[in-house]
């Protein structure tokens, strides 16, 4: 069964907080009341900004949007996703988020055939391919990991290091939930740099040429590299 966190009276828990620019900032559990807002932010920003999705024009295809919306609804439903909120007076704004499902060693594989869009299926197939080449459960000697299914900062709030704040917050959440590791296929150079800064190690690198040979062809730079990266909490 997919991992779902017990949502009790202690939730949502705050994992980081600070004051800046006359506002109060928190990194906390994504509030269930904001699930649909989170999904729409992914549709509005991640679907257009993520390199592989953008190269295929997924944001311009209705079927891709349908698949994307179902994907993110599922991945925030486990109640382990992280959100950054900016509060000024009574105004609280969701400014960044990281969809973080928990993957377990005995989870069923992705049902690629259930996806309506060939474009969306192709991008998810990249994740499946990377994870087939590197078994993170064996590599890290764990039975579950906090995964990443999309990291975004709303454009207005970029440049403040919020992506790194969210990646750092995976550690206190994992420790609280007795999850010993986190892993993610990072598809963009900016998120790869942020992950490295946060102590993630690269377990697998795939080049554009290697993706091509696997039948996963994208109209992207020949220098493109994606990385499966992980961090263990001992």
TrEMBL record:
Q: Which residues cross the membrane?
A: none
Which InterPro entries does the record cross-reference, listed alphabetically? Answer: Acyl_CoA_acyltransferase, GNAT_dom
In alphabetical order, the GO MF annotations are:
N-acetyltransferase activity
Q: Which residues form the N-acetyltransferase domain?
A: 149-200
This chain belongs to the protein called: N-acetyltransferase domain-containing protein
Instruction: Tell me what organism the protein belongs to.
Output: Eumeta variegata (Bagworm moth)
SUPFAM superfamilies referenced in this protein's UniProt entry, alphabetically: Acyl-CoA N-acyltransferases (Nat)
């Amino acid at each position: 069964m997919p991992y779902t966190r017990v949502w009790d009276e202690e939730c949502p828990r705050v994992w980081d907080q600070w004051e800046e620019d006359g506002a109060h900032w928190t990194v906390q559990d994504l509030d269930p009341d904001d699930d649909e807002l989170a999904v729409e932010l992914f549709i509005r920003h991640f679907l257009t900004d993520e390199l592989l999705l953008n190269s295929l024009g997924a944001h311009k295809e209705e079927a891709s949007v349908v698949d994307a919306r179902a994907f993110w609804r599922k991945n925030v439903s486990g109640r382990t996703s992280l959100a950054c909120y900016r509060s000024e007076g009574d105004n609280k704004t969701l400014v960044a988020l990281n969809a973080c499902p928990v993957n377990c060693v005995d989870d069923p594989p992705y049902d690629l055939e259930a996806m309506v869009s060939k474009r969306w299926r192709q991008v998810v197939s990249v994740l499946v391919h990377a994870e087939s080449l590197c078994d993170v459960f064996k590599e890290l000697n764990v039975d579950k990991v906090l995964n990443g299914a999309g990291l975004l900062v709303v454009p207005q709030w970029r440049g403040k290091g919020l992506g790194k704040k969210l990646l750092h917050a995976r550690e206190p959440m994992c420790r609280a939930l007795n999850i010993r590791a986190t892993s993610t296929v990072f598809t963009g150079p900016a998120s790869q740099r942020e992950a490295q800064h946060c102590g993630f190690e690269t377990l697998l690198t795939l080049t554009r040429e290697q993706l091509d040979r696997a039948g996963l062809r994208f109209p992207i730079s020949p220098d493109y590299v994606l990385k499966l990266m992980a961090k263990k909490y001992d």
